[in-house]
Amino acid sequence: MGDESGLTDPVTGFAYPAAWVKRCTNAGRREVAAGRSVLTASGRVLRRGYTTGTTAAASCKAAVISLDRPLDRVALTLPCGLPAILPACASGGIATVVKDPGDYPGDATGGLAFVATAVRKDTGILFHAGEGIGRFARDTPRYRQGDPAVSPPAYASILRAIEEGMQECGFSGIEVTLSIPHGMEIGQRTLNPRIGVEGGISVLGSTGFVEPWDNHLAASALERVKAARQPVLTTGRLGMRFSHLRYPDGDIVLVGARIGEAIAAAEGRTVILCGLPALILRFIEPHILEGTGCATVEEFSRDPGFSAVVSRILADYRRRAPLVHVVLVDRDGTVVGESA
Questions:
Q1: How far apart are CA 245 and CA 333, in angstroms?
Q2: pTM of the full predicted structure?
Q3: By C-alpha distance, which of 325, 328, 330 is closest to 340?
């Protein structure tokens, strides 16, 4: 699969089929090879956007550097290891970076301004999540009530960006406050209220990129499944990472929430479905949370009866879909449920 094309996505490791590459322009191939865009089955190139985590990191780094000099762009190394340059408006310790959604029309946070303010201090780094960043309304398996909704990868990216700005300017200490004007309003349009995050948006991002999940890319994902010798379906970036480790000879395809369509695209072949529990369990059993009092599958996973429920659901699904081998992993890659 993709052996003749010589074009591989540096973000996902996916080798594009030669037929797709032939339909693409040379300029498009360069963007795809650099990881800034993805190639679809039709040859159309879709531009990746930047996550809220990347936008936050860029704003914070720009604010730090602007204490030394004004700037209109800022360079970052994304969590996936690729370089990026984002436009910025920064001077006097205040920086604004506008979130770029790429070719993803459904990005609710696209166009939001991320504003960071930096002041020098004697030593060390202080980071504050300010206005417009959501906070957890109750305890979850990973966060305590009142914690800002900033994921560990995004937080690490922000701290790394601040450190880079400090090193570039020779600063020994800095205090940075990040705010997102209109974040509270936009947060109401996201899934945050359903997962117990109030007062703003979440700052997230495991690769640094937003995938352009429109109909073109969805169609290409299904084409990838059809072309796969050993289809391994996964729902997100962590699932993709662990799928590559567990199934190095498999054709790993990121399908998001389109699990049913992807299984159908396999056309009767055996499929491995590997990833974090939430999307997969809700696909298999849409009513899994009814009567639990939990807002999310992750929250339900703390319940003593969770393992028994998962075992029952997977056993039932194995009878209904014997060609689908489900492997549920946690965020450390440990298998927490399997339908075999």
A1: 9
A2: 0.78
A3: 325
